[in-house]
Design a protein that fits this description.
- There is one protein chain.
- With 490 residues, the protein is mostly helical.
- 71% of the residues lie in helices and 0% in strands.
- It contains 19 helices and no strands.
- The relative contact order is 0.07.
- The structure holds fe (ii) ion (2 copies).
- One fe (ii) ion is lined by residues 285, 289, 314-315, 420.
């Protein structure tokens, strides 16, 4: 957690950590980008140039130089611009996903424009897929990288005065403009009808530019119409094939995009059905935490679908022995018959078992991690106190009465920890005055801060304050407003 008012030395340490992360990120992004850069450069020469000539002895040095130019530009775009201006760490998986999608789009676009017609350039394919699977920034930079590679390829495979070069450049510009517009208009998790509308109407917006560029080349023939039709068909085609590609990537990379998260949030999912029948108290608790987490994530600019979904699954580890958790007990409490050491190990192991169960069910990594991290290294105070009371003399080490961790590593994991703690506490006892209710929520959050549970994630004090206010507003409506707002604390 970043407290930007106090503790400057800690802020400095966090800065150092961020610099180290940045260096690692730049190093890890270079390999996929170089691989894809080589692939694009070689394929570009194959489609648009006289391939064998470029690799003959007298041209080899020049060819390598041109390829290095293209690859260097890609490396600058991704290693420098992308990472340097990005607030969070990019995973290796996202780089490979971006690189593969870039290569697929480049190969399809180059093949169609090289072998069918230069105006068929479906550059918006990568945009559609990457917005859904990663984010808008990645999609934008990918379009820029492909534009650069095409221009470099065209520039070295044609003479500047060639009409083919002018057409090629105008085609790639139109393709890139379509991609930029799709990027601007498309939102994650559109309904099918909105996807259809974006894919049909966006390419129309850029076609006047296509006509204009054709006229600039002093071509006043029927070609104008063909250029428009080919470019339009390319953009619509990209929109049609993006869904199957998204599905394939979701499966290969186990990606938690919004389509997948929505599927996982269906209460008919086998794991949630098991939770509802075997641990109904935990199931209800998870649904309420889901509502709170979704509202908090929206309020601090995190993915609300991810927050809801992770909340639904955060306690699946309790399926191993539901009766040991208070929300699933009615009259019988097995802890009455156990020593505190055994009780606490039954309780704390639900994070580890949850992680195992989530992996077995191939849940996305973000959710697996939250199953493990949502209690961080918090102590189970009730059983610690019980053990102290039973102990006749001497101190008792707290370590045995804590969750094993790790602490939350992301903002979503942190907000689920907060929502989870507050929901569980309010389920046990809901204060009946507004003042007491707010005080209780504040003290529950302050306790987690004092236990340094947010030290390993990038959440700020500002975020925590927003989360607190959101929960204060949202929770009474979920609990059917049992708080008397006018009643004063006695
Ligand atoms: Fe839990
Ligand atoms: Fe929980």
């Amino acid at each position: 957690m970043i407290d930007n008012v106090k503790d400057l030395s800690r802020a400095e340490r966090i800065k150092q950590l961020e610099r180290k992360k940045l260096r690692n990120a730049i190093l890890k992004c270079l390999f996929p980008m170089v691989v894809v850069g080589v692939g694009m450069a070689v394929y570009g020469l194959f489609v648009f140039g006289n391939f064998t000539e470029y690799f003959e002895e007298e041209q080899l040095a020049g060819t390598i130089g041109r390829m290095l130019l293209g690859i260097g530009l890609m490396a600058i775009l991704f290693g420098g611009v992308y990472e340097y201006t990005r607030s969070k760490n990019t995973s290796v998986r996202d780089y490979w996903l971006t690189a593969i999608m870039m290569l697929i789009t480049y190969v399809i676009s180059a093949s169609l424009s090289g072998f069918v017609n230069i105006y068929i350039m479906p550059l918006s394919l990568a945009t559609f897929v990457l917005i859904e699977l990663i984010d808008r920034r990645t999609a934008t930079l990918t379009t820029a990288a492909m534009l650069v590679m095409f221009i470099v390829t065209f520039a070295f495979t044609n003479r500047p005065e060639d009409i083919v070069l002018q057409e090629a450049v105008s085609s790639v510009v139109i393709g890139a403009m379509s991609a930029v517009l799709v990027n601007f208009l498309e939102k994650k998790h559109f309904s099918r009808i909105k996807y259809l509308l974006v894919s049909l109407f966006t390419p129309l917006i850029v076609q006047p530019m296509n006509v204009f560029l054709t006229l600039m080349m002093e071509d006043y023939s029927i070609n104008i119409l063909f250029h428009v039709l080919y470019a339009y068909a390319a953009s619509v085609g990209a929109a049609l094939v993006f869904m199957p590609i998204v599905y394939i990537f979701e499966s290969i990379f186990n990606i938690a995009d919004d389509f997948r998260l929505n599927e996982l949030c269906q209460l008919s999912h086998p794991l949630l059905k098991r939770l509802a029948s075997e641990a109904p108290g935990t199931f209800n608790h998870s649904l309420v935490v889901g509502n709170l987490a979704e509202a908090c994530a929206s309020a601090i600019g995190e993915n609300p679908h991810m927050a809801r979904c992770a909340a639904y699954y955060h306690d699946i580890g309790k399926l191993k022995a539901p009766i040991y958790f208070s929300e699933n007990q009615s009259t019988y409490n097995p802890h009455d018959e156990l020593i505190p050491e055994v009780s606490v190990s039954m309780i704390t192991s639900h994070t580890l078992f949850g992680e195992i169960l989530a992996k077995q069910n191939k849940l996305p990594k973000e959710i697996v991690d939250i199953c493990r991290q949502h209690h961080g290294t918090s102590p189970v105070s009730y059983f610690y106190r019980k053990a102290i009371n039973l102990k006749e003399e001497g101190d008792l080490a707290m370590d045995q009465y804590k969750y094993a961790g790790p602490k939350p590593q992301t903002k979503v994991a942190a907000l689920i920890m907060i929502a989870d703690t507050i929901e569980a506490a309010m389920r046990a006892y809901m204060p009946d005055t507004r003042e007491e209710y707010e005080q209780r929520i504040t003290s529950l959050i302050d306790e987690k801060i004092s236990l340094r549970q947010f030290d390993e994630c990038p959440i700020t004090m500002g975020d925590i304050d927003i989360i607190k206010k959101t929960i204060i507003e949202v929770l009474p409506s979920i609990h059917h407003s049992r708080i008397d707002y006018n009643k004063k604390k006695k």
